[in-house]
Write a structure and sequence with these properties.
Length: about 120
């Protein structure tokens, strides 16, 4: 059975990315390095079937995880600082995380299609 055609695996990879990112980034003071989140993001790039799954995962990350972190974990003045920093955070996220993820998924799909033939 093809790993990327297994529906349950794809649903789990789409759902697990926001959960794992939320847990890892909420415990960033204990991790102290960007290496672990970067490796996990790259691993998820190899799990997603296509760019659509990547976009759904990232949308879930922003729609669910950010408000939960903002209001339940941070709260108060930390939330105000985060909201004030959003104009800087969003472009940085797009160029440092989102676009490289798209490029990795596209290259992986290109290579998989090339070697399947």
């Amino acid at each position: 059975m093809n790993f990327y055609n297994h529906r349950l695996v794809q649903i789990l990879s789409v759902i697990l990315y926001p959960i794992s990112a939320f847990i890892i980034l909420s415990n960033g003071d204990k991790i102290v390095s960007w290496g672990i989140p970067a490796v996990i993001a790259i691993l998820f790039c190899f799990l997603w079937k296509n760019v659509q799954h990547l976009m759904i995962s990232n949308a879930l990350l922003w729609i669910l995880s950010v408000p939960i972190w903002l209001f339940l974990i941070e709260g108060g003045q930390g939330a105000e600082v985060f909201i004030a920093s959003l104009p800087f955070i969003i472009p940085l996220y797009i160029f440092i995380v989102f676009l490289p993820e798209i490029i990795i998924v596209l290259i992986r799909n290109f290579l998989l299609n090339k070697f399947r033939r």
